[in-house]
Amino acid sequence: MYDVRTRKRALALIAQGRSLNSVSHETGISRAAIRSWQDRLEPLSPILPPPGPPSDPGAYAYLLGLYLGDGCTSTHPRGGYYLKIACCDAWPGLMELCREAIARVRPGVRVHLVRKQGCAMVTSYYPHWPDLFPQHGPGKKHERSIVLASWQQEIVDAHPWEFIRGLIHSDGCRVTNWTSRLVDGERKRYEYPRYFFTNVSEDIVRLFTDCLERVHVEWKRANNRNISIARKASVALMDAHVGPKC
């Protein structure tokens, strides 16, 4: 009923991270037909050689921060891998920054938004994502060791602010606290900003705090999973290089 070109087009959309429902709606092809083709046609993506270094190390440092916070890689049924970064709908600017970073790290790959309730998965198919993110593995990140490869550490050392920015954009925030004081008998309100970073992986928290110390940002552990940055000079540094989410 459908020619090979039509089948390949539908499967190419699936390979981009699209759902069966959305591809069926766009093409008019039933979900059952598309599902049956997945097992019968050869993979659409050519076999590519392992990647060299990231094309843009600064963009990679930022993307690595996003990945360690809210990212994962998953296998495609017909080979290759998806890179997926979860972004809350409240931060549309972050979605665009994530898309740009992926495109700069590996030019030529396609990047798509897969909508979920309250968030979107910024998704990209590429056969060798685990080579670029060797922290890939089964289970949750906080239940396994997270250690940077030597080449990743070199990039982070060269681009510490981009790495910090990615971690804050994934698992951090900038908030404004306030207090009140009596001044000459009058109660006045004082506001002061601070940054928080929250992650249950001690390894990821350590990567974050090591990087903060490298750029002379003072931090304190608010509890076993929260890092606070409240010193005025350190907040000013964070504002200059990171800033609030958008």
What does this structure look like?
The chain has 246 residues and is of the alpha+beta class. The protein folds into three domains: 4-40; 57-144, Homing endonucleases (Endonuclease I-creI); 166-241, Homing endonucleases (Endonuclease I-creI), CATH 3.10.28. The protein has ten helices and eight strands. A hairpin with a 5-residue loop joins strand 1 (71-75) and strand 2 (81-88). Helix 4 crosses helix 5 (92-105), helix 4 (57-70) runs parallel beside helix 8 (160-171) and helix 7 crosses helix 8. It is elongated, with a radius of gyration of 22 Å. It starts with a helix and ends in a 5-residue tail after the last helix.
Secondary-structure element pattern, one letter each: HHHHEEHEEHHHEEHEEH
**What number is the mean pLDDT?**
87
Low-confidence stretches: 41-47
Strand order of the largest sheet: 1-2-4-3
What is the total number of structural domains? 3
Helix content: 40-55%
Query: What is the correct CATH architecture of the largest domain?
Result: Roll
CATH-wise, what's the superfamily of the largest domain?
Homing endonucleases
User: What is the approximate shape?
Assistant: elongated
Termini gap: 47 Å
Structural class: alpha+beta
Instruction: Report the CATH topology name of the largest domain.
Output: Endonuclease I-creI
The proportion of residues in beta strands is 15-25%
Count of helical segments? 10
Largest sheet: 4 strands, antiparallel
Number of strands: 8
CATH class of the largest domain: Alpha Beta
Radius of gyration based on Cα positions: 22 Å
